[in-house]
Specification:
Shape: globular
Number of strands: 21
Strand content: 15-25%
Distance between the termini: 59 Å
Structural class: alpha/beta
Strand order of the largest sheet: 5-4-7-1-9-12-2-13
Number of helices: 15
């Protein structure tokens, strides 16, 4: 008995010593079998990474290619909506615009759906530390309630004279209104938010995206007591197209290639489709007339490469800290961008250029390095896929489906097309071969990508009724009424709460 007692005392003493010298977070986080999540969003980025389609010239994207080599890249990935707020709301809530009624940038999701469980909240509720920086939800005040996060660093546009009302904090005085040479493109007011070029005197480290990545890198360099969900929202290549000179130098103006355009392309397009394209037609025509089309494409490319460099900094920090072994990476863009294709400038159409996005998943132990998938997916897959990969509690009412089966077998049969919505009642369905668009008045377009990758010939007719019927099955049966506009509320940024002007109902954001 005495020997047993002495042995027990020794065990207790050893346990006390270990508890002193081993920190709790080193046990619970570093040895956890629960994966971390690195959630990387870019804004307005075309799928120009050289997968199948895209820019015909050289695109300098070493880090996107590096990421693709780490996991699986999707050649037919599409946005839930080709405009920022509804696209990001769909991803972050796992619900389509036709479910939420969030169809445009002038609507706040939180006071409209205060009980919705967002993606970061789902991870927070399951014991993750939830952090983020930059543009994840739509970026302006009222879109990103603080209760979604344990920590968040907002995007404030210190580097942008358009968002700052032509005032920059650096290197000019706060009181100086027009930085020398502004607008730097030499073409005022086109396109919307429109300018491009190099901001004189601004170092790369002064750009907002650089500071967003500084935050993300600092979190990757720290030990955490819990597994983490870490969101990195890179704003470029969203307008205005500002980037350091070295990224413009990657694309000599004489080497810039312009998109192919068919002059009578829109002759067979329904009225509503023509109206969408006409919305930015004046911008496009002014850019062409001024002889600055190549300059604009160059600036877009420069901003893609600048965003790519920021991605590289994140990947460097991930690998430096050996977190790549236990971190799931999701890389996506909120939508694509037209640079003259179909005579359109901007996003906000249901055609290929505005809806197709880069999309890569790295899931250690599941995805094969450097694999590719041709099956069509849309961004509604992100929420359910992460829940499954991280073995979190299911969330009721999600509209998307998990693509974990595709992560394991990219070549498996897949009967679910990608669906993109823009404005109430308008929808595109994209299978591996076809794009079918139906507008709110019932008119439609159909394109066969095996023969017409530029979508120049609308073949929506009785001759292809079988294809139309098959794709029509995936169009939402009902479209929710429009959520109230921001003008319906009084928003208090100090308390982060909303008061509905009609009902006087108060919704608190934290």
């Amino acid at each position: 008995f005495r020997v047993l007692s002495m042995f027990s005392q020794s065990i207790i003493a050893l346990f006390i010593c270990l508890s002193i010298f081993i920190k709790p977070q080193q046990i619970s986080a570093e040895n956890s079998d629960r994966p971390n999540v690195l959630f990387i969003a870019v804004d307005d980025m075309n799928d120009w990474g050289g997968l199948v389609r895209g820019y015909k010239g050289k695109v300098h994207l070493p880090n996107i290619k590096r990421l693709n080599a780490m996991g699986i890249s999707f050649e037919n990935a599409y946005t839930a909506s080709p405009v920022c707020c509804p696209s990001r709301t769909a991803v972050m809530l796992g619900k389509r615009p036709s479910t939420t009624g969030i169809y445009n940038n002038g609507q706040w999701w939180f006071p409209h759906m205060p009980d919705a469980v967002s993606l970061p909240m789902a991870f927070k509720d399951n014991g993750y530390k939830v952090m983020g920086a930059g543009k994840i939800f739509h970026h302006t005040a009222g879109f990103n309630p603080p209760l979604q996060w344990d920590e968040f660093q907002r995007l404030v546009f210190n580097d942008d004279p358009w968002f700052r009302g032509k005032k920059l904090n650096y290197p000019w005085s706060k009181f100086e209104k027009n930085p020398k040479g502004y607008p730097f493109s030499g073409l005022a007011g086109v396109p919307h938010e429109g300018d491009w070029g190099v901001i004189p005197g601004l170092k790369e480290s002064d750009y907002d995206d650089f500071k967003t990545v500084d935050y993300v890198v600092s979190k990757l360099n720290k030990k955490h007591q819990k597994p983490f969900f870490l969101a990195c929202g890179i704003f470029r290549p969203h307008l205005p197209w500002y980037a350091p000179q070295k990224y413009f130098d990657l694309y000599p103006i004489e080497e810039i290639l312009l998109p192919d355009i068919l002059e009578n392309d829109l002759d067979d397009i329904p009225r509503e489709g023509k109206e969408l394209a006409a919305f930015r037609r004046g911008d496009f025509n002014k850019i062409k007339k001024s002889g600055k089309w190549k300059e604009a494409v160059q600036a877009y490319l420069a901003c893609i490469s600048f965003a790519d460099a920021q991605l590289g900094r994140v990947l460097d920090a991930l690998e430096k800290n050996s977190r790549d072994k236990n971190t799931i990476i999701i890389f996506w863009s909120d939508h694509g961008w037209h640079l003259g294709e179909k005579q359109h400038w901007h996003k906000s159409t249901l055609w290929e250029e505005a809806t197709r996005i880069p999309f890569t998943v790295v899931a250690p132990g599941i995805t094969a390095a450097g694999s590719k998938c041709k099956r069509p997916i849309d961004t509604l897959c992100i929420f359910p896929t992460l829940l499954e990969l991280c073995k979190l509690k299911p969330i009721k009412g999600l509209d998307g489906v998990s693509i974990v089966p595709l992560l394991k077998d990219p070549n498996m049969d897949w009967k679910i097309p990608a669906v993109s919505e823009f404005r109430r009642g308008q929808c595109a369905v994209r299978s591996e071969r076809y794009r079918y668009i139906r507008y709110s008045d019932g008119t439609s377009e159909l394109y066969d990508h095996s023969k017409d990758p530029n979508e120049w010939k609308n073949i929506s007719s009785k001759e292809h009724q079988g294809v139309i019927d098959d794709l029509s099955e995936f169009i939402p049966k009902t479209f929710a009424v429009n959520a109230p506009s921001k003008g319906s509320y009084e928003f208090d940024p100090d308390t982060y709460s909303w008061t509905h002007k009609k009902t006087l109902k108060v919704t608190k954001g934290k």
